[in-house]
Task: structure prediction
Amino acid sequence: MEPNLPDVVLWSIPAFVLLTVIEMVSYRFHPDEDAAGYDTKDAATSLTMGLGSLGFDLLWKIPILAVYMGVYELTPLRVPVLWWTVLLMLLAQDFFYYWSHRGHHVIRILWACHVVHHSSRKFNLTTALRQPWTSATVWPFYLPLIACGVHPAALAFCQSANLVYQFWVHTERVGKLPRPFEYVLNTPSHHRVHHASQGGYLDRNYGGILIVWDRMFGSFAAETERPVYGLTKNIATHNPLRVATHEYAAIARDVRAAGSWSERAGRVFRGPGWQPVPRPGPEAAVPVPAPVSVEAAGGPAPVRAEAPASVTAAAPAPAPEHTR
Result:
C-alpha cells in the first residue's frame, strides 16, 4: 500500500515567500556593502528557473517512477513507514544525496545539469529556487534505497524534506551558528562555501541536511574568506533557456572539436575542468653541422650551429568553453 505522506514542498511555499520578503526588506533597511545582495533580473531568472523546473520535473517523473516501481516490485524487501523508519530513511536519503551532489560536480555531463544552480553571482533565498530543468540525471543514485524496500513515495517525501531544508541555507543574512550545529548540520556558512568560485572553495560541502558526510569523505571546507559567488567563467545572460542549456551546448562544441574518441569521452564523462594531454607535433629534422675545424693551435673552441629560429613548438590546444 502506498504510504500517505504530506507534500512538504507545497506546504512550505508560504514560508518560502515570507522568508524571501523578509530577507529583501532586511537588505533595504540594513544594507551590507560586502554582501552579494539582490539584483532584480537575477532574482527573476531564479524564480523562472524554479517554476520551469516544476513543469519539467513532472515530465521526468513519469519514466523515473516507472523504473522505481519496477525495482520496488521485484525486491522482496519492504521498509514499513513508521516514525523511526522515516528518520532512518531521511538519514539514508541524505547520504545518497551527498553522493549524487558530488557526482554532479565531478562528472561534466552531470555538471551540465547542476551548473544551473551555481550560475547566479548573487547568494540569497531566490538562489535556492534556481533549479535545473534536466534533473533526470539524479534518479540512479537512489536506486539502492528502492532496492532495499523503500517505497518510491517515501523516497519522494524524503527528497522533498531535504529540498525544503536547503532553502534557508541560501543566505548571507545568517552568520555562523554555535559550534555543535556547524559541526553536524549544513548551515548558511557551509553552503556559502559551496557556492563560491575561489579555488580553495571549489567542490566542497556537498551535504544536504548534514555536513558530517563532507567531514567523513574529505570534502569539507570551513568559511574563512568572504566567498565570491558564481562560476569560474560566468555566463552573461538572464535568458532562462540559455541558463538551462549553456553547458550542454559547450559540451557539444568541445566534442565536435575533439580530435579522438578518447578525448570526446573525456569531454563528456571527466570533470568540468578536464583537459586532454597535448600530443607533441612532428618535430622538424634540423641538420647539425660538424664542429668547425680550427687549424691554428690555441685558436677558439669549436662552434656548434644552432637550430633555425623558424622551428617552434606546436601551439597548445584552445581551452574548452565550459563553465566551472
About this structure: Residues 292-321 have pLDDT under 50 and may be disordered.
